[in-house]
Design the sequence.
């Protein structure tokens, strides 16, 4: 049973436009969510996180929105840049638990075209 | 500050053999986690160590094992290798294992089993 789902394996966006990456989760115990970005031949790097007590968290060009009732979160990148082309992983956890046991989605490959 | 270092970067083994992968966490980080990344399954949690103790374990067979040393360095071992063990193995460290302390990933060890 996939607890974190990223239903779009890939997304292509024009430079300067908005990229929206979606993520759904099924585990009601999750109350903390993170996004990681991964370039080929590198490990994932932390991008942004959100606690379930918030519905939005913003960091520069990156904003994560959380809809608890729908068990859905999304990552918005505005404006998108070619350097943002990477695989994006959504992950969930119970904040009181161990972050070493993050449950990841399968990732969405974002391509930003110049 | 040096990042998470994983050795070796690439490894080719034959079915039935065993393999040991090594991970040096960021200095001061006491939590080390291991993940397996495959194209079909995304990032899957293997286990987490904190202060030399296994804190969490994922849903992998007993052929997968690990340990952590007093200097927080960690190793994982896979015995009786199978073709399906071919994957990118990622190590991640964090200050502690609670939420709010993002994981820092190494660049991984690419294991190919023939």
Sequence:
């Amino acid at each position: 049973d996939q607890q974190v789902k990223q239903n779009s394996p890939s997304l292509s966006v024009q430079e300067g436009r908005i990229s929206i990456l979606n993520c759904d989760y099924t585990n009601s115990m999750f109350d903390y969510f993170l996004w990681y970005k991964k370039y080929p031949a590198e490990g994932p790097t932390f991008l942004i996180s959100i606690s379930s007590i918030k519905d939005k968290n913003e960091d520069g060009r990156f904003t994560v929105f959380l809809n608890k009732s729908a068990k859905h979160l999304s990552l918005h990148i505005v404006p998108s840049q070619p350097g943002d082309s990477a695989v994006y992983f959504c992950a969930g956890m119970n904040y009181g638990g161990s972050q070493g046991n993050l449950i990841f989605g399968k990732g969405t490959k974002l391509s930003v075209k110049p | 500050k040096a990042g998470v270092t994983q050795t070796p970067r690439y490894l080719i083994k034959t079915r039935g053999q065993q393999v040991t992968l090594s991970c040096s966490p960021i200095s001061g980080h006491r939590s080390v986690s291991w993940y397996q990344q495959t194209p079909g399954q995304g990032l899957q949690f293997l286990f987490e160590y904190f202060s030399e103790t296994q804190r969490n374990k994922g849903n992998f067979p007993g052929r997968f094992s690990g340990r952590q040393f007093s200097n927080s360095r960690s190793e994982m071992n896979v015995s009786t290798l199978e073709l399906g063990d071919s994957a990118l193995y990622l190590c991640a460290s964090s200050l502690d294992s609670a939420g709010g302390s993002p994981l820092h990933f190494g660049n991984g060890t690419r294991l190919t089993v023939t």
Summary: Chain B has a mean pLDDT of 92. The interface with chain A takes residues 4, 31-33, 35, 41-45, 48-50, 55-56, 58, 90, 92, 94, 97-108 of chain B (CB under 8 Å).
